[in-house]
Amino acid sequence: MLVEEIMKKEVITLLPNNTIKEALELLNHHHIRHIPIVNEDHNVVGIISDRDIRDAAPSTLEEKQNQDILNHNINSIMTSPVITVHPLDFIEEIASVFYEHEIACVPVTKDQQLIGIVTEKDLLYTLIQLTGIHEQSSQIEIKVPNRAGILPNITKIIGERKTNISSVFIYPDQQDRSQKIIVLRIQTMNPMPLIDELKEQGYDVLWPNIPGLRQ
Amino acid sequence: MAEHTGVKTMSCQSAFIYTEKFQQYKFRDDHPFNQIRVKLTYDLLKHAGTLTDQQVMTPRIATDDEIQLVHHHKYVEAVKQASQRNMSESEIIEYGIGTEDTPIFDYMHEAAATLVGGTLTAVDAVINGPYDHAVNFGGGLHHAFVRKASGFCIYNDAAIAIKYIRQHTNYKVLYIDTDAHHGDGVQWAFYDDPNVCTLSIHETGRYLFPGTGNTNERGRLGGYGYSFNIPIDAFTEDESFLEVYQNALSTIAEYFNPDIIVTQNGADAHAHDPLTHLCNTMNIFEEIPQLAHQIAHTYCDGRWIALGGGGYDLWRVVPRAWAQIWNIASHFEPLSGALPQDWIDTWSEKSPVTLPTTWRDESGIYNEIPRKNEITEKNRISLEKSLKLIKNQQKYT
Which Pfam families does its entry note (chain B) (predicted)? Predict the structure, then answer.
């Protein structure tokens, strides 16, 4: 899945000479946490987060709060240069960017121009969709040897039952590296006949998979 | 919670909705959803002597307009056409029909409309008739969506009934769903409606269909705070189930102050049920209707519609569970001791499993659960999360 498929295209921006106060108002009004700062040519020249503003704002514990600080230009506190991504990047890549740089938002640029924005929340939402949980379905897990050709055998059995698959995940078995666990969300309320068939064919079906609780 | 005095001395007039035609709702011989459960329940009650012919009411069939209180007319049309095999596989599949869960069968529309009619007959008996309570074990098909069949459900009679109640009265409706699966279809139908409060207690959707029913599904817009969900862990037992149910229902009833309750009494939370992983016994199926009955008298002048739902151990579990609902609705108390021998004799040959001989389960029907305390704790946390909104309000008023 590509960044351009999940990014928000309407981006709220400010110019470097807008004030911190204006930024604060925008953040509160739109319930957002990041504002990219652009120049007249719509190039991204900085970014500010709600935390940058909080760092700059007077402490709520001080009796006489110096509100003048809020009249400073945002270029005095914005982060620059900015980490940006391309619309054709994969969403897995942004996940790594977030993880490595410990940030929660990246502007998307094309030809140096700002065209979108992706936040941690957008990414999490997409990951939730990828698990298939938004469609009515049951989940089964199958422990299989870690070698080629297993998955098509399993999906063939499911396909022959005219049962639609919402999502497939594969992850290594933590206890035994020679095994993998295939997690399937399938659109049926009655997975029992399928589970029986898989077991008959020698597959190890974990349903449900809770350590210490296999009956 | 308000006092519920005098329930036992009150005389409740109750209607039992029943017709042989409920059997027409049948997908396949080997399909887990089988309405023989309703017949077995009816027959058990007849033999037990707690159901008289005067109490039995024959249902009407629901009209298209009534079904379309919830469902899209194109969907209703698709169900009709599919019943007559007038549609191709690719045309019907978007409506969730023709799948392994909801395969096509002859007179599918009529059969489904009869279940809805049963539930509407129950509603009429209570809102327009002299009845305090009415039960329709042919209904409770809580998974069906506006334009999609799902999880063995074609038309969502529970949602239709609630719309119908709202159309004909100004009653605030409390819907209580104790099926082991999340009552998603009903929840989504009233997700933004503050006059309909839904409570679903179900096995967590991590594995089980449909996957939804998290504590954070609380409703939207005006309906925010009127959807409650308590997912409970696989292998939950009676004690923890009842702790969650009794706490949740008492708290929510007091908060919402309903005028009528509709209960969906799926009987698939039992240890024997082949489709789920809960470990309850008949005990919960005696307690569930007793509290519902009490709530109906405390808040709703008795108005209570009880529906069926899931339940896939057709022989050992469902007939006893549903019969006890009727026993409570009509005679205030569950029966105990031995089941009528006549009933056992009538059905034991047809049953693929040995029929139970008593109303209660014997001990030891499932193996001891190793992580019982953790499961109980986890369920308690889900209960607290779900009720947090109400508890917070109480703190500040």
Answer: Hist_deacetyl
